[in-house]
Amino acid sequence: MSTETLAAFTAELTYDKLTALSIDMAKRCILDWLGVCIGGSRTEPATILRKVLPKGGAEEATVFDGGGRRATVYEATALNAAASHSLDFDDLHNPSIIHPACVVIPGALAIAEKEKRSGKELLAAVCAGYEASGRAGESVIPESYYFWHTTGTAGVFGAGAAAANILGLDARQTLMCYGSAGTQAAGLWEFLKEGAMSKSLHAAKTSFAGVLAAYLSKEGFTAASQILEGEKGFCRAMLPRPHLEKLTENLNYGHLKIDDNSFKPYPCCKHSHAALYAIGELRAKNKLDPAKVESVKIFVNKITDYLINNDRPQTPYGCKFSLQYCAAAMLAAGKVEIKTFAAAAIDDPAVRGLMERVQVIFDEEQEAVIAKDPSKLASKVTIEMKDGRTFTMQVDYPKGDPQNMMTWDEAVGKFMSLAVPVYGEEKAAKLCSFVRTLEDCPDVAQGLAAATSF
Length: 454
Fold this sequence. Notes:
51% of the residues lie in helices and 7% in strands. It is α+β, with helices and mostly antiparallel strands.
């Protein structure tokens, strides 16, 4: 059974089985997540959730909003998950189209604090979560993506796997955790039409569901043992002919899904990044004057076309899912950053004017690229100038993909830019050091306390 095999694999994944690459990637994932969580804690969706979620109970885990607040493991998980998915700056596993960090790490870290687990145990749990989410996602991609936000649906298996691993559940208990997690899978794309806040809610509920499933399983709560491949299980609910082979294909500790993870240099939908990278490179290399651009044509695959081909975004969040807006902003300023999507920025006449010159075109060649290799969220850009010059660039791997990796220094720079405004430079630097040396930490709770207090 596929669920049983995958559950046993993630249950038995320990730090000693990790390669040096997997350990390094796990640290990068945690650092990246922590930065976007801290930065995202000040967004409106995160603020509303902090206001609405029930308060009180044991102070078991840190809420990373800069206020020194501690909450129950469930509340901290949900709040941190929502915050880390509010900026659309978090990581992506390209082949499964899942943002694993925002659903895997919040629960694993909260449990590590509550249960006094070590840094090594946390690293292993994160790797287990990325493995389960990636494989579940690949089993239903690309067909399910039209309706279902994979981070909210398949991501629940990653949340459950990480929570079960950090709790030390055995293979049978982990299998039951998968069953309870999978039956809670949810997350629809309809919110994108209005640029609404649902995406952060998906992360909060998904990560919470994984933690709940793990603690229920620990107490003997039973669930479906074939929740992934079963006749009425997750995969067949997502599409008629799921790719069940992806659940266990090449399953081995020598190469994990986390090894192929991608990170974002731009705080917007990852499907825009290939085009943004191309525009940025062409603009800088050829010293292009935006005022002299006649047209920008962006050739994309089917998913990119139906997800972010939006020439009239009305809200800051909607602009993150408008390839036209993101492309025009990159062309105008040579960069796309958090302030690009501020309420005061999205109606900039210069950017809105450039949007009129941006065309997003479905292209069979780009569809063939992703069909052959799902890790390539590729696009091709052609910029035509008013003087007749034309510049074209195909990008298969934008900055942040494993094949075009951000350096550790770049990762630290991203983290500090997000964390310093909330925590100050000294605490932010301590948090960065805590993650960098996580394998040496005997107690995550003590390590975090030392990093966030004076």
